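Appendix B. Raw example, untouched.
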Amino acid sequence: MFIERLEAKDYVSFAKDKLNLSFADIKQVKNGMYIRLLVREFGPSPEFVLRDFVCEGINNPISKENEIPLQKVWREFLAEKFGEEYKTACNSFLKKQYEDGLIK
């Protein structure tokens, strides 16, 4: 819906401008976009699957620990990019999650 409309440069901009991190890798995966970020030259790199409304930390504890904070920044980034269209869709998604008991 929204991530399909983003280009590779948008993900690079997200990493650099919003997270102040270097961008290491990107590839399309089922229902999302895999990204790997560089925190340091050596050591574990945070890895995430980004979707329209969620961010899933994968493959290491650093990713899992930063899943929710990154998700907040990701939603803010998409809201800036797509405006009211995104905000309305995200609110509908979150309302449905709440009604289904998936979030409190």
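End of appendix B.
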